[in-house]
Amino acid sequence: KSNSNVVTCAKMDLTKFKTADQSDDTGSYVDVTDLGFSVAANTVYVFDCRFIVLSTITTTVVQIAFNGPASPTNFNYVALANAATTTFGVPFGTTYDSTGGAMLGSTAAQVTQQIHHGTLENGANAGTFIPRLRTEVGGSAVTIQRGSWCRVWTP
Q: By C-alpha distance, which of 93, 96, 80 is closest to 128?
């Protein structure tokens, strides 16, 4: 007998939290510690991340991108980032280490948030899927703060 109330569970549903602040001022992407996930080959993943970020000066943007195993079949995400209580940007990305558009800066010493949602259709290579942080301007520090998190699951 068929039962329409049966739910098929996901293969993976994992959330990780950032345990300490992490700053960078190099202008190059660096892995965000605590938030990497092992991903299997030929598997589809969905992800949501909430980043609490700080830029030390108004002309410096906190840029967050993602990196993962080589040659994904498809990768895309959209982000919602606030620069102030009423100013938002909605960039998107389709490649690793790309912010996909201009992220907004924040008022000096003001904590803001970025929310990212997307999918990774992983190809033949297993590996690590991880968010990455950089400052828009080398020498100007940006920080991703403790309490930021990412959730990854298989549909």
A: 96
